[in-house]
Amino acid sequence: MAQIRIENVRKDFGAFNAVKSSTFTIEDGEFFMLLGPSGCGKTTTLRMMAGLELPTSGEIFIDGEEVGQKPASQRDIAFVFQMFALYPHMNVGKNISYPLISQGMPKAQVKAKVAEIAEILGISDILNRPVGGLSGGDRQRVALGRAIVRDPKAFLMDEPLGALDAEFRERMSEELRALHDRMGATTVYVTHDQLEAMQMGDKIVVMNHGVIEQFGVPQEIYDWPATKFVAEFIGSPPMNFLEFNGTVGTGAEHVQLGEARIAIPRQLGGESGALTLGVRPEHVYLNDAAPYRGEVVATEYLGTTQIVTLKTEHGQIKARIPSNVIVKEGERTGLDLDARTLSLFDATTGHALRSEANQEVLNHG
Amino acid sequence: MSFSVTEPSARTKWFAGLLVVGYAIVTLIPLLWIIATGFKSPADSIAYPPVVVFEPTLEGYVNLFTDRTRATEGMLEEAGPPTTWYEEIVRERGTVITGPSRYGERFLNSVIIGFGSTALCMLLGTMAAYAFSRFRVPLKDDLLFFILSTRMMPPIAVAIPIFLMFRSLGLNDTHLGMILLYTAVNLSLSVWLLKGFIDEIPIEYEEAALIDGYTRFQAFYKVVLPQAATGIASTAIFCLIFAWNEYAFAVLLTSGNAQTAPPFIPTIIGVAGKDWPAVAAGATIFLVPVMVFTILLRKHLLRGITFGAVRK
Q: The complex's ipTM?
């Protein structure tokens, strides 16, 4: 098992720049998520770790060894493809044993190893079946079997649950996480699904347009997004943005939104001009006495909670409140925003402004 | 009554079946006629109205494989009574066998040249198609168009330049020359067909093999080739049929050494009268290898014809 370090890695496809100078470290044994919308460079980054693409510049270290320009076959990593890529002309057992055969392992040993892996994954009974007729979940297990069978330095997974239907996804994501915990192997997992990333990952890198937007543990990223992109990409519904023009000075603890004075975490730098106040829906409370006003536009019932959409003079805002509160469309009400959780962004660059609350997160993001 | 929009009705199926059977009969009659003629006597073969029921004889086959001469009394006495069944057949016509005909070696030439060029074509074709399908080849589209363009005129249009080239290179009337020529003619079709098949094979299979510790060539050989088997088989049939049946180049470029069966068969039309049964026998035997090859690979052939129509 191994640490993976990416240093100033860049990838160009002709004139198109897929990944711009990325640097981050995946610690030994971590379940690491590469998260971003499609086309953000996350899969390219993963493929560079695997050796399926060679970086245009920069270095990739696996277990301390620089492998950036080495072919995939010499890196000793395993890769799980989105469409599984099981060899269609081989049965389940052959598929799992294929990486061992390339190493020239004796037949008896291969057989024992395959049996052991099949036992772990619960697929012992289908070893002789062709891969063609397998269910999505079983294909996934076979693909995992092929990956874990030779104890590689790391597992790289490219949206491995993307091809499964919702019901299987849930089960397989639990199985995957359990398997990871059992094996303790470094795992890099690419996904565009923020829920999956937060649910499974020890750490997350959020990428957009080939750039790393933020790096950290799920809760830090959720609570203290480094950019407006991250704030919007993570969370469902995403973080609310209230756009306003104003000035915040160093040490400021309030912002002025129209008539209302809203408390914010103590600011560490000053900024003026177009600003954005970010607030998660669960930190918006309906309070008729509050000075900041909004008009209810719509409500969505979600069982234990409901999402109330309100129109304010600084844009739409969604509040997640208990579903037993009765809210009527067209009603005007006051809004309380939980001061400890608010983020301020520079609206032009999209970067979060430093405050006492988020400085620690931003320092290592 | 319930009905389905995709399942044809019983009447439609019956009608379709009738159509197929009818078509099969129409296409099979000439074939059956050739096979039957091979077993007719010369008289039956040119009888008018044509005879359908006749007494079969192997005379045509004996004539195909032997050279004969009209025998004089002295020759017959010298040779003594016939010792084999085929000598007996020949004697009835007042001729004796002077030796084997050249049909055997012409047939063998056809096998060597036909299968040789098909094999070479597949070898070069798969590799070229793989490269075009997977690698960033400079000027890829232009090269592919250029390859296709070699197919835009009938090959025989360049017969004279090829004849002159072959003469300078000493390839006239050689097996190698004919193999190279048929390979060159077929290669454009093979590259295009095979590229289509290889394009359909997801690249992830090879990537999985690369990750599993195989080299690119091993990945090509162990993972791509088995997947492309259908495409290779159907392309091979197309190539073999062309090389096997080719007549014009064979007439022009071969005579003694490397002559294939197609230009030889017409020369059987005999010294004494037209020996149609021998010609038919030659044609029948000539049909067999391609028929066997095609029947063996027929599943692939069907898929080859409709390839690309349905994406799996």
A: 0.81
